[in-house]
Each structure stands twice: as C-alpha cells, then as structure tokens.
Specification:
Elements: E1 2-12, E2 17-22, E3 36-37, E4 44-45, E5 47-52, E6 58-63, H1 69-74, E7 79-83, H2 97-100, E8 104-107, E9 112-121, E10 126-131, E11 138-141, E12 149-151, E13 156-159, H3 169-177
Parallel strand pairs: 8-13
Antiparallel strand pairs: 1-2, 1-7, 2-6, 3-4, 5-6, 8-9, 9-10, 10-11, 12-13
Length: 178
C-alpha cells in the first residue's frame, strides 16, 4: 500500500522548482521521508524544500534532476507516494487516511452500513465517504461522536451517525407506512 504525501503543482521560477501541496502535518516534513514515488512506483523523486507558498500546506521544492521550468511543468499534477511501511507509527486515536479506506462501516448494533471508500477534508474537518450496497454513498463526519470506534485489527469502524444521515426521514416514513 502506498500513501500520497503530496501533489506537484505549478512551476516556481525558471530553474525547475515546483509548488507542492503536501498532506503531511508539517508541510516541510515531506522532504524528510526520502525518495518519493509516482503512483506506479517506477519513478522516484528526491526533493528539497526551499520555501513556502501561499495556500495551506504548500511548499516550494526542488526535485533532483529537474533543472528548468519546462521539465517542471511536465510534472504538474504528479502525485508523490511513499510506501505505508515507511511511515512512522501513529499515536493512539491517530490514523492515516490510507488505513481507513477499505474498512467496513457498521452501526452500534452491528448492522452493516457499507465500506469506507475515501477520507476527505473540505475545510471543516475530515469526513468519511461510505459506499453502500444500495443507495447513494453517504458522508459521515470523522469525529468521536459520529465514529466512536475505529478497530483497525477487525477492519471496521462503528458509526453513531447524526439522525437522518443514513436513513433519511422520507425513506423511514415510507417504510413505516408499508
């Protein structure tokens, strides 16, 4: 399994530096993990952070072997990965997004809800996108209140979602009338 640590953005200057949107707690820490890989694992990139840019979590970095703006432009959109095993262990109640994707989502009574397919952060905190067997995917806030249990060993999370999130009132009412 690989974990995406950043995405290459626009070039910065004419000597090959690029903007990188990082997904690390400390943006400059992206350079401390050693060589990063493309999605296929076939190409490796060693980078050196040389500054910060406007935007949350954006650094300016030089990539080994990239010495001009044209070569930097070709890398725009490139996702930079690290093997999961290379990441440090997490503290209690901390999780890598990659560890959550694929976990089963169940309610407190054990009934299945679906499977986590993505973790998003749209600015107000992390949310879990859960694909269901039937119906549209749902998005659950990744808070202790809504997700009281994360059991990586059992490959599941237990949900206590806000009222109406999983079973919208209209569907509930139709079932009650049937």
């Amino acid at each position: 399994m690989h974990v995406c640590l950043g995405v290459v953005g626009a070039p910065h200057g004419v000597r090959g530096a690029v903007r990188i949107k990082t997904f690390t707690d400390e943006p400059a820490a992206i350079a401390g993990y050693g060589a990063l890989e493309d999605e296929s694992g076939e190409r490796q990139f060693t980078l050196r952070v040389v500054g910060t840019a406007k935007g949350d979590g954006v650094v300016i970095a030089e990539l080994a072997g990239i010495a001009d703006r044209d070569r930097a432009e070709v890398l725009r959109g490139l996702r930079l990965y690290l093997p999961r095993a290379s990441l440090p262990p997490t503290a209690e109640d901390e999780f890598y997004h990659a560890d959550l994707v694929g976990l089963a989502a169940v309610l407190e009574d054990g009934s299945a809800v679906g499977k986590i397919v993505a973790v998003h952060d749209f600015g107000a905190g992390d949310v879990l996108e859960i694909a269901r067997e039937r119906g549209q995917p749902i998005v659950v806030p990744f808070t202790r209140a809504a997700v009281p249990v994360v059991d990586l060993a059992a490959r599941r999370v237990v949900l206590d979602p806000p009222a109406g999130l999983i079973d919208p009132p209209r569907e509930r009412k139709q079932r009650e009338m049937a």
